[in-house]
Amino acid sequence: MNQNIGETDRLVRFALGAVCGLISLAILGGVISTAMVYSLILGVIALVLLGTAATSMCGLYSALGISTK
């Protein structure tokens, strides 16, 4: 697969991934009181965002023919 994520898109994904990950950990730690399922959902979103940012490749972008590079 070719890289299809540009620098700005990559930085936004890193930032959003970090925020989602921190909120997920805050829920697990009891700092934020809400249903634990939100921690799981945010954790998965964080992993996807950070993974796609690290590799500069997005499978959805490839399937749709989008490139921000």
Description:
70% of the residues lie in helices and 0% in strands. The protein is mostly helical. It is elongated. The chain starts with 6 loop residues before the first helix and ends in a 5-residue tail after the last helix. This is Inner membrane protein YgaP-like transmembrane domain-containing protein. Pfam families: YgaP-like_TM (PF11127). Keywords: Membrane, Transmembrane, Transmembrane helix. It comes from Natronorubrum bangense JCM 10635.
SSE topology sketch:
Layout: H1 7-28, H2 36-55, H3 59-64
Mean pLDDT: 94
**Shape summary:** elongated
End-to-end distance: 14 Å
The major sheet is characterized as: none
Please count the beta strands (DSSP E, at least 2 residues each).
0
Secondary-structure element order, N to C: HHH
Structural class label: mainly alpha
The portion of residues assigned to helices is: 55-70%
Which key features would you list for this structure?
69 residues; mainly alpha; elongated
Give the structure's gist in a few sentences:
The chain has 69 residues and is mainly alpha-helical.
